[in-house]
Each structure stands twice: as structure tokens, then as C-alpha cells.
């Protein structure tokens, strides 16, 4: 908490003393030799240090993808764990270059907070988790319940709206840290915990007895999660966006980290154009990078499907189906503009 | 000639100028003006730069957002508040919550602190040691840990909502808090409040009269008992005369938890207890050293005058000790108030927690940090002014 006051104060002071975080983030990143990404402190599948202290997760891999595109080296990514509340001052003040931190794209964040959003690396929605022993089958039965929630999120706003529009009473118990909120729910302080569905599955893994808890069927909001950057730096915004599009296009074209070398020489014209083996192409340099930017992303990090499967997919502890996050050709929403 | 005159003139002005530079008064003023100018320049630059940077970053600014709809709910509020209320009102809820926990914490910390501080000087070895252990324990852990200790302890140890402990007066205790009947006031309740006020005013007069009589005749008077009888008795009499116009809303079991009644949540309870216990350990040391600092001769002289030991503590030692105790006590009160900003750790909605939520939802970092400064500063300055007044009252008055 002290840290928050500090970071808020530093944020405010940075706005006062320093000149605004430079508009040329790419140059700064290159000069520093690393890209600094704001991530969640510990949401398995999204960003979570594993038992060796290595960061893992879909948001972490997004950041590694940016590092691969800029430096040709996915390890040149630095992660700063930020609570929901700390993340925006950290981006505004320039402490991080980009937020890859399960952040919902909303209009006020896109406008009055001064950020830019464009890609969605995970389509999500808010849900509820309850103890099975309460015998609750629907969120509409929750009147009178105590609800644990993390502050500084869209979650706490959706929660207020949902209970109000359904005329239900509730007692919010609000925490700044996800871990505190989870412990409070787990020890019976609350009947319900609410956050993005993905977060619910992730947090359930951290509970004392995961199987005694169930996720209710209602999804009460749209939570398009994606990276955010500061306004006023279109070049950096383009790079961050096209990292995701490259991953999605790669999946669509059937390029994986395994076959990318082969595809680079033997693929069709669209594959070659994307991987930078097309004669005289300037796609990469026009982006401010090298022509093998997309090749590096796919080779060193993987295509979108590979990353999804490795971090949150059916074969991970989270066991999440592709659902909305399937490619548009497979009934999902993941759709990337063409690389040409 | 003319050349000489010119010469002497220049050396004259030079002399005057050099004496100006060497004049400590002039130099003092010069440096003060310079410092002030630099300060003004600094503040001005920072302000300009902030405005520029905010504009460049496309972050909206100004305090207009306080009129906007907050959109989030708050668990603990002393005034009516819903998600439809404004950000300004949310802030007010936070200020009141901070004041509530600070005021109650200060009172409790003072009581515990005085008891423990006096106990440390006890002749009884066990009592003195226990008091010392208390002080060493709480003084040496960071306040955040004390808060988490209470919070995790409270929610882990107390029974689950469906197995509440039954307490007297239809009150219940579980890990969602303490549930007590809520008084609902009927007609004429204001008369009880008036009776209470009359009791206080009457007590003040009685005390003045008793003091004067004692000074003139030496006869003591039981001011404390008379006062209590007035302050408690008068309202009770009025209450009965009005035919008991207060009814109660009792907590009853609901689907998830008890409903109805008033509830003190574990968030408030643990923050309040943690701040009280933590600060009390410092107050105890202040009290102990304050008492120790009163010269032994005072006790001996009072003994020689034939005062009883009870009266010696009350009339001779404590008044003198208080003079030493009050100034450092003030900083402990200020510390307690500032430490209440650790409330977020246990989910209590104090000003800092609510302000933080607003900061996140609106992105108005500069404005909200400025509001934090102004609010905490006002609370601290008010406390300090009050304590200075109290200190002046307690200071040696020469008759
Ligand atoms: N998508 C929502 C919620 C994101 C969020 O912060 N979720 C929480 C709960 S799953 C979280 O990631 N906490 C991790 C942390 O604070 O370290 C938003 O952008 O406001």
C-alpha cells in the first residue's frame, strides 16, 4: 500500500518534474536494451512466475513477442508486477513501456486516461465463483451475499451495475491485492469472488480446495483484454499491435515455431511476405524494425494458438477451451488484418 | 582636482557597497528573498511542466470529475452512499471512515497506553514484565503486519457465518463481523439528547463549584460520582418518562449471513484493534518516561504533607507527568492517523483506499494525490492544534 502511494506520488512527481515520457518509446527501448512490460503479480496462465522464478503466461508471451520483434531476442523483456490499481499510474509515468496485463479495453481508459488499445489477446467476460456448499446455481440467487473483489478494476464497476439492475443487495469487500482478496474468500469472509472468468479459473487453482468451488454460469460483462500503450506514440502503438496480428496471421497460415524455417523458403507468397523472405519487401523496416520481425516472433515465441495452448489451453491446469479466442475461421473472434 | 574628487567619490560608493555586502542584516534579507524567489520559480516550473505533460499525455485534468457518478460500491459507510453517488461523496465516505477509525483508535490507544505505561512501573514483578513484553512485542513489528495479524486472525478464528456465536442482547459474532441490534428512534428522542447535554453542562458547573469550595474550605466533593449520575441518570429518567421511545432492529439469520441490525465488519475491527495496540506500545513508553521524569522529591514532599498515595498519583505526579507526556503523545496520534492509510491491506474503505480506486477509475493522479495531501494535512494540523491547546491548558499555571 505504501508502494501504491509511492508509485502514485512518483507518477504525479514524474508528471511534474520530468519532461513527459518520451514520445519515441521504440528509441528508448532500444537504448535501454529491454522492453519493460507491466504484468499481473500472479495470475496462473496470464502472468505468473513458475517454480524457477521464470515468468510464464499468455500476457508474458505477448511481451516476449515484442522483445523478439524489436531485438530478435525474447529474453530482452523485463516484467514489472503491478496491482490493478497501480498499473495505470505506472504506464502514465513511463515506468513501463506497455501494459500486457489482462487489462480491459474501455472507452474511458482509451480516452480520459490517455491510453491506446487496439488488439485483444484474450476475449473474456466477468463471472462469479462460489462455494459448492452454498447450493447456489445462479448469480441471481446472490442477494445478501458478501462479495470479495479487487479494486481498480472494471470488475468492481460491473459488479455494482449488475446487482443494481437486478435489484439485488450485496456487501462488497474490496481489496487492493488479488492475493488478499483470494485469501479472504477462501477463509469464508465472502460468499462470492468475482473477476474475469479466466481469472476465476486461475485463482481457483490457488485455493485450498479448488474442487469445493464452482464458477456460476452467468457472464455479466464483456472484457476484451489487450495491451495498452500511452497515447501520442503511433509508431510504438503499431509495433505492439502488429506483434499480436503477426501471431494470429501465423496461426491462420499454419506457420508454427517448428516449421517456420521451412515455410520461410517453401511457403506461398503471403507466408514469404510475412516472414520477410520476399525480395525487396520493406514491411519490417516500415514498422521501424527489421524484415525478420515476424519470423522472430513465430520462431522464438510461437503463433497465437501455440501460445494459447501452452499457457491457458486444455492441456494446462487451467483447461480453457479456445471458445471466443478461436480464429475467425473456426468460429471465434481472433481476426487479424492482412500483412501486405 | 576634479580627478581627485571623482576618485574619492568612487571609492566612497565602493565603500558603501562593500559595507552593504558585509552588513549581516542586508545579507540575511538578500538570502531570504533569493530563497523565496527560487522556491516560487521551482513551484511555478513544476506546475507549468505538470500542466504541459498532462496535456501532452492527453490526460484529462481538473477537479470536475468529483461531480461524476462513482459507479462503485463501498462496503462500510457512515453516510448514505450508493454507486449512483458522486466521486465527491465517495471521498467524503472515505474521510469519515478514516476519522472514525483514527478517533476511536486514538482513544483506545491512549487508554491501553496509560494502563501499560503505569503497569511497567508496578512493584509487582509479573505485571511489570507482562507490560514490558507487550511493549517490546508491538513496538518491534511493522504496523502492516499487526493489521494483517488481526485481520487474518479475526477471519480465521471466528466462526463461519452460519455458525455464529450468540452473545447477550441478541448480538452475534462471526467472521463477517459483530452484529448488534440497531436502535430505531421514535418520537421525542431529541429530549434524551437534550437531557444528556444538560447533564454535561451541569457536571461542569458542579465541578467548578466543588473546586472553589475545596480551595476555600478544604472540603472535598465527589465530583466524579455526581457527574456520572447527572450524565447517565438524566437521559435514563427522560427515556422512562417518555415511555421508552426506542425500539430495536434485531439481526436475524438470512440465506448467506445475518441480516438486519448494525454490523461492525472484521475490516474495521481489525484495523481499529491493530492501530490501537500498535500505537499503545509507544504511548506506554511515553507515559512511563513521563512519570519517571517527575522528581522523587515531589512524592516525598507530598508524603510529608500527609497525602494518601492515591491522591499523590492523581494530584501531584500525573499533572506534572502530563506536561512531559503531551508533546510526544501528539506525534503518536499523528502517526496513528497516518498509519490508518494501511487500511487497504484488510479491505477497509478509508480515504486512501477510496481515493486510490478513484485514481484508477479516472486516472486523475495529480488531482487525487493533491487531495490526499490536503486531507491528511488538515487532519494532522487539526490534531496538532487541539493538542497544543490541551498542552497549554496543562502547562504550569502560576497562581
Ligand atoms: N480486466 C479487468 C480486471 C483485471 C484484473 O486486474 N484482474 C485481477 C483479478 S484476476 C488481477 O489480475 N489481479 C492480479 C494482480 O493484482 O496482481 C480490468 O482490466 O479492470
Structure, explained:
- Chain B: It is a multi-pass membrane protein.
- Chain B: Its main location: membrane.
- Chain B: GO terms for molecular function: transmembrane transporter activity.
- The complex is a heterodimer of chains A (340) and B (399).
- With 340 residues, chain A is an alpha/beta fold.
- Chain A folds into 2 domains: 5-123 and 225-317, Periplasmic binding protein-like II (D-Maltodextrin-Binding Protein, domain 2, 3-Layer(aba) Sandwich); 126-221, 3-Layer(aba) Sandwich (D-Maltodextrin-Binding Protein, domain 2).
- Chain A has helices at 2-17, 25-32, 58-71, 87-92, 107-110, 154-165, 178-186, 197-204, 234-253, 260-266, 269-275, 283-286, 293-300, 304-311; strands at residues 35-39, 48-49, 55-56, 77-81, 98-99, 115-117, 122-124, 126-131, 145-150, 170-175, 192-196, 213-215, 223-225, 228-230.
- Chain A has a 5-stranded mixed β-sheet, sandwiched between helices.
- In chain A, helix 6 links the parallel strand 9 (145-150) and strand 10 (170-175).
- Chain A is globular.
- Chain B has 399 residues and is α+β, with helices and mostly antiparallel strands.
- Among the domains of chain B are: 2-56; 87-116 and 264-394, MetI-like fold.
- In chain B, 69% of the residues lie in helices and 7% in strands.
- In chain B, the strands form 3 sheets. A 4-stranded antiparallel β-sheet of chain B has the order 1-2-3-8. A two-stranded antiparallel sheet of chain B has the order 4-5. In chain B, strands 6-7 form a two-stranded antiparallel ribbon.
- The longest helix of chain B is centred in the N-terminal third of the chain and has 34 residues, at 87-120.
- At the A-B interface, helix 1, helix 4, helix 6, strand 10 and helix 7 of A face helix 2, helix 5, helix 11 and helix 12 of B.
- Glutathione is lined by residues 40-43, 83-84, 102-104, 150, 153-155, 178, 195-196, 199, 223, 225 of chain A.
- Residues 40-43, 83-84, 102-104, 150, 153-155, 178, 195-196, 199, 223, 225 of chain A line the site of glutathione.
